[in-house]
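Input:
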Amino acid sequence: MSTVVVGYVPKPEGEAALRAAVSEAKRREVTLVVVDSHRGGRDFDSDAADDAEASLTTVKALLEESGVDYEIRQLVRGYEPSEDLLSIAEASDAELLVIGLRRRSPVGKLILGSNAQRVLLDAHCPVLAVKGS
Amino acid sequence: MSTVVVGYVPKPEGEAALRAAVSEAKRREVTLVVVDSHRGGRDFDSDAADDAEASLTTVKALLEESGVDYEIRQLVRGYEPSEDLLSIAEASDAELLVIGLRRRSPVGKLILGSNAQRVLLDAHCPVLAVKGS
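Output:
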């Protein structure tokens, strides 16, 4: 079973990636796998867990409305998001991986983060990179 | 008119990008714009022009066989390939830009070249990055 896999974060670039991934999964008529990865650790307290849950509720509503066939994988394993994304893409036989790119850093400089670079270079399938607005 | 725009180079990653772009243009039922950009200058002598012509013949054969609606833009304007690609994507109202990524440098290190980074960060539309085999 081929899939489209998307790395979701509750930020403008994550929302843009999710919307693009929904379109791609529909166009390709395959299941969409949404990866919501948290490193966990000391910063991932009960408040963080509540926030993650709240953002996932919004994601589920969007997915239900889209009519696309989907799965959500919520991971708190202590890995970098890129590692979780790459391993799930491989395990899910992804034909496309979708990631969001931050458009600008707080000081207005364009950046391509280390997670994005890792995914672009190490993915076994094509990677669609979309920017948040 | 919406399009898919692809940056072509006569290398494995350029061929992979071209094949992916053909699939995307078909899937989206839009015109494919193939950008073949050369910086020109002293290194672009008549031999280089002949090589460019020969590789374009192969490209045209692949495009004709695919049945996709296409245009080829061959540019020798002294600009970086990323600049040519970005300006044509904008002018062609691209809904998707496709680029090839080199898998490895001669010493086996993974690299994300400056042209690829520039396109990923500055494109006004989503960018599909594919690796050569």
